[in-house]
C-alpha cells in the first residue's frame, strides 16, 4: 500500500472531506431555515449570525428590528383574536321607515310566530358604518378622538349638501339575516367614501377596525342569531316567501345627520338604542322633527333644570330663615305677644 506523497490526499479521505463540507453546508442552510421560522425572523439573520462582510454588528439596528418584530407579533396576536365589540352607527329614526319595517315584521310573524324573537327592535334600527375592537377605556377614548377627527373629512366629502339615504326592497345574508336594502343612486359613492375614510382614520389611531368583506350598507330588521333556539326548533333559514310582498317596497328616506360610536355589549338605552360613547352631528336634520334620542336628551335637560330650580329655591328659603334681622324680629313679636297675654290675664 502506497502512502500519499506530501500535499496529496487519499481518495477515501477526499470523499470524507467532501462529505464533511457538504454536511457543513447543509447544516448551515438548515440552521438558516430554522432561524427564519423563529419570532425574530425580521432581524437581519446574516448580521445576527456574524455572516457578514462588515467588521462590526450594527447593534442599534438589531434592537430596532427586535422592537419592530415585537410590535408586529402583538399586532398579529390582536388581529388573530379580533372580535369587534364597538361600531359606528348611522341611526335610522324616520317615522315613515320605522313604521314600514314594523309592518314588515308583523307580516312575517303572522306567518311564523317563532320568528318574533328574531326581530330587531324599532329603537335599534341603524346602518353599520364600521366595526372595531376596543379593549379598554383608553382605546374607547382613542375611538372617541377618531370619531371627532372624522367630522371635517365627512363635511369635506358632502360639500355642505345633505346625504339622503333612500330604502327600498329586501335582501338577506345567507338567509340568516334579513335587511332592508339601500336603493341605488348618487348617494352610494359618498357613503362609501365616508366608510373608507372612517376605516382609515380609526386604523391610523392603532385601532383594529374593518371587516374582510367589503362595506355593504344595509338596514337589518331580523336575524336568526338573536334566537339560537330557533335552529333546534327546525328554523335554520329565513324563507324569502315570508317577505315576498315587500321585495320592491319603498320604505322612505333618512338624512345622514348623526354618527354614533356604539357598544355591542353594554346595556342598551331605555329607548332600545345602543349604548353610545360619543356622537358627531353632520349638518342639520331635515324637517325639524326630533328623533327619540333627541327627545330623551331634551327630557333629561328639562328634569335637570327643574331639579336645579327646586334646589336653588330651597337654599334661598333656608338662607332667609337664618338671617339675623329676621330672627330677632320674630323674637320681638313673640315677646310682644307674651306681654299682651300677661296684661290680658291681669285684666
TrEMBL record:
Residue stretches of biased makeup (Basic and acidic residues): 61-74, 331-347
Name the record gives this protein: A-kinase anchoring protein 7
Subunit (UniProt): Binds cAMP-dependent protein kinase (PKA). Interacts with PRKCA; only the cytoplasmic form is capable of interacting with PRKCA.
Residues of the A-kinase anchor protein 7 RI-RII subunit-binding domain: 288-344
GO molecular function: protein kinase A regulatory subunit binding
Residue stretches making up the A-kinase anchor protein 7-like phosphoesterase domain: 84-281
One cellular component term from this protein's GO annotations in UniProt: nucleus
BP GO annotations: regulation of protein kinase A signaling
Domain of life: Eukaryota
Compartments in which it is found: Cytoplasm; Nucleus
Region feature Disordered, mapped onto this chain: 1-26, 56-80, 314-347
Keywords in alphabetical order: Cytoplasm, Nucleus
Annotated Pfam families: AKAP7_NLS, AKAP7_RIRII_bdg
Amino acid at each position: 500500500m502506497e502512502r500519499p506523497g506530501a500535499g496529496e490526499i487519499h481518495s477515501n479521505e477526499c470523499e470524507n472531506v467532501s462529505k464533511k463540507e457538504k454536511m457543513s453546508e447543509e447544516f448551515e442552510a438548515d440552521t438558516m431555515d430554522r432561524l427564519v421560522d423563529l419570532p425574530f425572523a425580521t432581524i437581519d439573520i446574516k448580521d445576527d449570525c456574524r455572516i457578514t462582510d462588515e467588521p462590526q454588528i450594527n447593534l442599534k439596528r438589531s434592537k430596532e428590528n427586535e422592537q419592530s418584530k415585537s410590535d408586529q407579533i402583538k399586532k398579529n396576536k390582536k388581529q388573530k383574536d379580533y372580535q369587534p365589540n364597538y361600531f359606528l352607527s348611522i341611526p335610522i329614526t324616520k317615522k315613515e321607515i320605522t313604521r314600514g319595517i314594523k309592518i314588515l315584521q308583523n307580516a312575517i310573524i303572522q306567518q311564523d310566530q317563532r320568528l318574533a324573537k328574531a326581530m330587531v327592535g324599532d329603537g335599534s334600527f341603524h346602518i353599520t358604518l364600521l366595526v372595531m375592537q376596543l379593549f379598554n377605556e383608553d382605546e374607547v377614548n382613542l375611538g372617541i378622538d377618531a370619531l371627532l377627527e372624522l367630522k371635517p373629512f365627512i363635511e369635506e366629502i358632502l360639500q355642505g349638501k345633505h346625504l339622503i339615504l333612500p330604502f327600498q326592497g329586501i335582501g338577506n345574508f345567507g338567509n340568516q339575516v334579513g335587511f332592508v336594502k339601500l336603493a341605488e343612486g348618487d348617494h352610494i359613492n359618498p357613503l362609501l367614501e365616508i366608510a373608507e375614510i372612517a376605516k382609515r382614520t380609526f386604523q391610523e389611531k392603532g385601532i383594529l377596525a374593518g371587516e374582510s368583506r367589503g362595506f355593504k350598507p344595509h338596514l337589518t330588521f331580523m336575524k336568526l342569531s338573536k334566537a339560537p333556539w330557533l335552529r333546534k326548533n327546525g328554523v335554520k333559514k329565513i324563507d324569502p316567501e315570508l317577505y315576498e310582498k315587500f321585495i320592491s317596497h319603498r320604505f322612505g328616506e333618512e338624512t345622514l345627520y348623526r354618527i354614533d360610536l356604539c357598544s355591542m355589549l353594554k346595556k342598551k338605552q331605555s329607548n332600545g338604542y345602543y349604548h353610545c360613547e360619543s356622537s358627531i352631528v353632520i349638518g342639520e336634520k331635515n324637517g325639524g322633527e326630533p328623533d327619540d334620542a333627541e327627545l330623551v336628551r331634551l327630557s333629561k335637560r328639562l328634569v335637570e333644570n327643574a331639579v336645579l330650580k327646586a334646589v336653588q329655591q330651597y337654599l334661598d328659603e333656608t338662607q332667609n330663615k337664618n338671617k339675623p334681622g329676621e330672627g330677632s324680629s320674630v323674637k320681638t313679636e313673640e315677646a310682644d305677644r307674651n306681654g299682651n297675654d300677661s296684661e290680658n290675664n291681669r285684666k
